[in-house]
Inverse folding.
């Protein structure tokens, strides 16, 4: 098991390095000039500078070194948590991230349980309920959730709960009630996908012979589904959940824009528009770290949930 | 003995047989535990209800063991599930009455039926390999059944261990903490039995309790189950496709076909005086019953033949994964070196041209490893493999490939060995395509010829495997193996996934093909009765070693080793013959009386069937007489 863990961890590190490198290469072939950007950020015009002054600036930021030297310098910095200076705002990238990340993590921390509640709840009921119309309704509902665009759902929620009913604030980062609408918006597509997968998975599991064994013991449908079907059915859903959580940064871009919230998503949007390469680079790395660590966690959970995976891992 | 007499008397009365409820009541004062009258069950499919069970009358008295016999699709499992209210989606009871413990539960809500499941009627489901929840510890799964009786959570643990122990699970405290994937098939079956008895039910329904298991394990499990039932006075309903199993175990046998009961009575009634032609057919195909409880080799003399495939002192070690062996049981014996498992040890075998070598052993004995080495799919650790006298032990894949035309394989499970997207014609033609034999037209002609050889209609060429039955699929697999006209076909348990009656058809086909084509078989099986029908030579494998080998006639009739005798003794149907011997001595001074009665009975039946009935009766009586002598 320990060897398996070490292997998975090494794999995760390689993925992170690859993500960072690919992002670095792509961002550096894009046509942009960091010096110009930085000058315009501090209010100066590039036309007022002599070529000698420009060269001095380039030397100061290490931009006259070869791309390889720049890459290794950036990589070394990233390893120490130093992502350089933002090109558009005169602060270090690390402090920008430290400022924005907690808001997004909080949003995500609220959204993930809601995703689970939507996904597992709807799937469980869709299989448990016997009354046919309700069953059909519950089984079809997730398809609607998946096909609605996230920004549209967000605007709809604002219209109903903020403007018409005035129950919750429409925008901002203040207080717990400002979290509700963004979290629900963020959870909806993931929850719907999860519900779709889990409904099918539960229906398949329900046909397994061990379900018959459980029912023949005299267990109720509820107990059978909860104790025997759900755990076995949740294995494929767990993989999807990993992907959904991994997409937190991507989701945050849309949700934070719609609800005008501070966060990594908003920062990402600004950085991309402003061609702020170091910030984009750092956000890509954060996204990758999130993705990799969540998927590592999912793999470990897999072996906890399914003893067969654990033995397979021991053999491998 | 008086009870037996009463029972026989009751059966002799024709009106009693017509109404089993009355008859059961005659045997026992209590009312029947289960009484089905005119039960009809169907499956909804595209707005229509397709009948699966029609007009079934069936009763099980307290303490009685009843066997329901029939091939797959005969409605026996559907009947059992209907009793428990556990019909799969789409299944509906369309008529008749179901009474459980004197209570009419026809169309009762799930809540009512749930009260009966586990505590009044328990079920041992079909396939032990998939019958347990893979993500839950064994003990917890048994505990659920214990707690159904309202046992307190703290006290449940002791009862779980007791149930496991009574079901014959070794080291119950250790097993309770294990997951099902750590247990062998036999142990899983015992856990399922523990679950069934944990609820202290009055009736246990065992649905094909042993079909997926080795014969020796099968016998041990059935013995154990019979003992439990006897000790606790529980009723037992065994559902099986093997009349031999039914005859050995049951007080009463019910034969079902196409959703209807065709015959019921005591084993003696059914076996000696079968009234329905289908019952006679079932007797004929049960390997042991057709020879009066004896395993009789088909080939008594073996003509000399040139050697085709030879394994010479072959051994195979497998490296065990680090972290130790936690499999706990099965196949773990014979491990010699450090962290290695000796799967085969000094195995020498010879397959002769045009003849059959039967390799027999329990699961974990190394049969499959031997087969893989013979096919060049696995390199032996020691020893040599010769094909046509040529050493192919270290042959590379590319050197072996042209030789593969000479030997082909038929798998155990025809449900998974055919590509579901291929048509039958594509399946059969694939070896031809892969070895670039012929063109489109000659291949099509060859496919027709092969289908004809395996007795499949030419119209089946365009069907897909899903449209075929298990036996038909196995015919397709055999046709595919024969496509390249190989000298040797390796058969890996080719009939163990099939019903007894279909087994017989496939074995007959294999015999005919060998006669016509002169092909040699390397035949792997766990059932000696099946091997006896096909093999010229037999080798018995146990713990990776050959414990006995020689001509079939010698090994099967005069076994030298204990393990061979054990395998022989496990063939179902023999216990019945022994029982018959005992009851004969009680009822009739001379065994021949029954034979005479049977012959007289058979006079009424049609001429073709007469021979069968008489032969069986005479055979069984003769066996009884022999046992009396010894």
């Amino acid at each position: 098991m320990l060897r398996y863990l070490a292997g998975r961890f090494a794999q995760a590190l390689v993925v992170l390095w690859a993500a960072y490198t690919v992002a670095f290469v792509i961002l550096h072939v894009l046509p942009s000039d960091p010096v110009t950007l930085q000058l315009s950020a501090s209010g100066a015009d590039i036309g007022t500078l002599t070529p000698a002054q420009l060269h001095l600036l380039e030397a100061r930021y290490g931009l006259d070194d070869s791309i390889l030297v720049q890459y290794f310098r950036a990589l070394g910095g990233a390893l120490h948590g130093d992502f350089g200076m933002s090109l558009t705002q005169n602060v270090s990238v690390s402090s920008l991230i430290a400022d924005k990340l907690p808001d997004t993590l909080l949003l995500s921390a609220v959204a993930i349980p809601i995703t689970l509640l939507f996904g597992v709840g709807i799937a469980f009921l869709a299989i448990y309920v016997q009354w046919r119309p309700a069953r059909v309704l519950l089984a079809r509902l997730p398809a609607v959730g998946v096909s609605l665009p996230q920004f549209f759902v967000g605007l709809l929620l604002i219209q109903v709960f903020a403007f018409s009913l005035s129950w919750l604030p429409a925008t901002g980062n203040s207080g717990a009630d400002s979290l509700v609408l963004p979290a629900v918006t963020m959870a909806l597509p993931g929850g719907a996908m999860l519900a779709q997968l889990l409904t099918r998975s539960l229906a398949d599991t329900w046909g397994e012979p061990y379900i018959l064994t459980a029912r023949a013991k005299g267990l109720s449908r509820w107990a059978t589904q909860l104790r025997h079907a759900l755990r076995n059915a949740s294995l494929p859903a767990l993989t999807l959940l990993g992907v959904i959580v991994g997409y937190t940064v991507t989701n945050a871009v849309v949700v934070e824009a719609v609800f005008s919230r501070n966060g990594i998503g908003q920062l990402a949007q600004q950085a991309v528009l402003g061609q702020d390469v170091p910030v984009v680079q750092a956000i890509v790395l954060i996204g990758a770290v999130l993705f990799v660590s969540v998927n590592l966690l999912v793999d470990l959970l897999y072996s906890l949930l399914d003893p067969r995976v654990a033995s397979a891992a021991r053999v491998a | 003995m008086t009870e037996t007499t009463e029972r026989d008397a009751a059966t002799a009365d024709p009106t009693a047989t017509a109404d089993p409820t009355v008859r059961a009541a005659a045997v026992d004062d209590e009312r029947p535990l289960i009484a089905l009258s005119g039960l009809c069950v169907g499956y909804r499919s595209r707005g229509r209800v397709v009948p699966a069970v029609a007009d079934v009358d069936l009763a099980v008295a307290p303490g009685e063991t009843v066997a329901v016999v029939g091939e797959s699709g005969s409605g026996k499992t559907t009947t059992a599930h209907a009793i428990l209210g556990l019909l799969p989606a789409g299944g509906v009871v369309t008529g008749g009455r179901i009474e459980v413990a004197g209570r009419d539960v026809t169309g009762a809500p799930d809540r009512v039926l749930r009260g009966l499941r586990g505590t009044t009627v328990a079920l041992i489901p079909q396939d032990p390999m998939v019958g347990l929840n893979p993500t839950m510890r064994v003990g917890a799964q048994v505990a659920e059944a214990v707690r159904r009786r309202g046992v307190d959570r703290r006290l449940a643990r002791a009862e779980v261990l007791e149930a496991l122990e009574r079901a014959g699970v070794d080291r119950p405290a250790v097993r309770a903490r294990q997951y099902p994937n750590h247990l062998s098939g036999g142990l899983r079956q015992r856990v399922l039995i523990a679950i069934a008895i944990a609820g202290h039910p009055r009736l246990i329904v065992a649905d094909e309790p042993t079909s997926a298991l080795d014969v020796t394990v099968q016998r041990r499990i059935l013995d154990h189950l019979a003992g439990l039932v006897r000790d606790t006075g529980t009723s037992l309903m065994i559902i099986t496709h093997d009349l031999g199993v039914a005859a050995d175990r049951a007080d009463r046998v019910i034969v079902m076909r196409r959703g209807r009961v065709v015959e019921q009575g005591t084993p003696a009634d059914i076996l000696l005086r079968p009234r329905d032609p289908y019952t006679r057919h079932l007797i004929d195909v049960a390997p042991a019953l057709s020879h009066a409880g004896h395993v009789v080799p088909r080939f008594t003399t073996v003509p000399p033949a040139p050697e085709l495939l030879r394994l010479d002192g072959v051994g195979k070690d497998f490296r065990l994964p680090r972290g130790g062996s936690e499999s706990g049981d099965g196949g773990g014996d014979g491990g010699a070196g450090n962290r290695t498992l000796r799967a085969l040890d000094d195995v020498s075998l010879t397959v002769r041209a045009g003849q059959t070598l039967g390799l027999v052993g329990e699961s974990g004995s190394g049969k499959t490893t031997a087969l893989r080495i013979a096919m060049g799919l696995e390199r032996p650790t020691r020893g040599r493999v010769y094909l046509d006298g040529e050493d192919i032990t270290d042959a590379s894949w590319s050197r072996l490939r042209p030789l593969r035309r000479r030997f082909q394989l038929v798998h155990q499970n025809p449900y998974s060995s055919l590509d579901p997207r291929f048509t039958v014609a594509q399946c059969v033609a694939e070896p031809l395509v892969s070895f670039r034999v012929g063109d489109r037209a000659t291949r099509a002609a060859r496919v027709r010829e092969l289908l004809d050889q395996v007795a499949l209609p030419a119209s089946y060429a365009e069907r897909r495997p899903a449209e075929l039955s298990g036996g038909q699929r196995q015919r397709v697999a055999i046709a595919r193996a024969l496509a390249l006209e190989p000298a040797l076909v390796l058969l890996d348990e080719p009939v163990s996934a099939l019903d007894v009656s279909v087994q017989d058809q496939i074995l007959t086909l294999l015999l005919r093909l060998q006669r016509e084509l002169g092909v040699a078989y390397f035949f792997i099986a766990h059932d000696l009765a099946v091997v006896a029908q096909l093999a010229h030579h037999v080798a018995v494998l146990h713990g990776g070693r050959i414990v006995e080998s020689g001509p079939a006639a010698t090994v099967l009739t005069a076994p030298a080793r204990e393990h061979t005798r054990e395998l022989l003794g496990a063939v179902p149907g023999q216990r019945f013959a022994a029982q018959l011997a005992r009851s004969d001595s009680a009822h009739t001074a001379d065994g021949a009386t029954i034979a005479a009665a049977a012959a007289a009975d058979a006079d009424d039946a049609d001429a073709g069937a007469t021979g069968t009935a008489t032969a069986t009766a005479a055979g069984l009586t003769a066996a009884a007489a022999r046992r009396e002598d010894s």
Notes: The longest strand of chain B covers residues 48-60. Chain B is about 40% helix and 20% strand.
